[in-house]
Design a protein that fits this description.
Helices cover about 50% and strands about 10% of the residues. The protein is of the alpha/beta class. It folds into two domains: about 80 residues, Methyltransferase, Methionine Synthase (B12-binding Domains), Chain A, domain 1 (Orthogonal Bundle), CATH 1.10.1240; about 120 residues, Rossmann fold, CATH 3.40.50. Strands 2-1-3-4-5 form a five-stranded parallel β-sheet, sandwiched between helices. The site of cobalamin (B12) has 40 residues, from helix 3, helix 4, helix 5, strand 3 and strand 4.
């Protein structure tokens, strides 16, 4: 099986909600040298996107959506130790407060960003999901954060990102923190419109963005050992 075959097989297993096959293919991906992030970004997440489309088209319903999230998490349990193994163990580069905004319970993507930042040398305070904007600010003040990172997956909860930036501005704290935004519902246009300091579409890009913002260019996640990025096929 080529790497591309493994990716396809895993993506199809995810779409079919076949937990056993997802576990098998996730292990096969690692054995086949795919790397944990490649496995997430090129196979599992695209599978989840297809699930999302099926849900939107009413081909599947909430129980299936929940099952998909559960299966994704079981694959993450296999991949997470590998991500940690590949991470850099260097001195602390900065402090980040992260969470999913008020009204939004999606955490899979936020957790991926958190793990990648942690394994890139950042101290990350994860406030979880459905987080009130003042909780973000309180936590950032408390731990002297450099960055507040806001995830939003629902169009209806995006406004929480705007509200936070406005609250920071109103409190005279806008210059104290860099605010970055991401999650399925976010676009770079939205990030510009609300005056966010940055937007990233994927976990990899989130690390590169944070490195830039705190002035620690470093390398994008996984580049340090040449294993995870740019392995071609
Ligand atoms: C799994 C899932 C769920 C699970 C969530 C499980 C969990 N605990 O996280 C459950 C079943 C609970 C769920 C519930 C609902 N969901 Co839902 N869900 C999804 C699904 C299929 C996948 C989301 C996901 O995890 N993706 C995989 C991760 C890896 O991707 P990601 O989150 O985008 O994260 C990546 C990047 O965006 C980025 N990133 C993420 N966060 C951040 C933050 C920062 C700062 C940065 C820089 C980057 C960054 O890095 C990540 C890694 O690369 C999506 C479909 C989709 N295409 O996204 C629908 C989807 C998001 N859900 C949707 C809906 C409608 C709902 C419900 C309202 C359904 C209902 N009727 O109850 C509820 C809402 C509950 C709530 N209040 O939040 C819609 C949203 C439509 C919209 N635009 O508003 C979607 C798009 C499905 C669809 N097409 O209709 N859902």
């Amino acid at each position: 099986m080529t790497k591309q075959d493994i990716r396809e097989s895993l993506r199809n297993a995810m779409v079919a909600l076949d937990e056993e096959a997802v576990t098998k293919d996730t292990n096969r991906a690692l054995e086949g040298g795919l790397g944990p992030l490649d496995t997430i970004e090129q196979a599992l997440a695209p599978g989840l996107s297809i699930i999302g489309e099926k849900f939107e088209n009413e081909e599947i319903f909430l129980p299936e959506l929940m099952k998909a999230a559960e299966i994704f998490q079981s694959a993450m349990a296999i991949l997470q130790p590998k991500i940690q193994e590949l991470g850099v163990k260097n001195q602390k580069k900065g402090t980040i407060v992260i969470g999913t905004v008020k009204g939004d319970l999606h955490y899979i993507g936020k957790n991926i960003v958190k793990i990648l930042l942690e394994t890139s040398g950042y101290e990350v305070h994860d406030l979880g999901v459905d987080v009130d904007l003042f909780k973000f600010i309180e936590a950032a003040d408390h731990c002297h954060a450099d960055i507040i990172a806001l995830s939003a997956l629902l169009t209806s909860t995006l406004i929480g990102q705007k509200d936070l930036i406005e609250a920071l501005t109103g409190m005279g704290k806008k210059e104290r923190y860099k605010v970055i935004v991401g999650g399925g519902a976010v676009t770079s246009e939205w990030a510009d419109e609300i005056g966010a300091d940055g937007y990233a579409e994927t976990g990899y890009q989130a690390v590169a963005l944070v490195n830039r913002l705190v002035g620690k260019p470093g390398e994008a996640w996984g580049n340090h050992d040449g294993k995870e990025r740019g392995d071609g096929d």
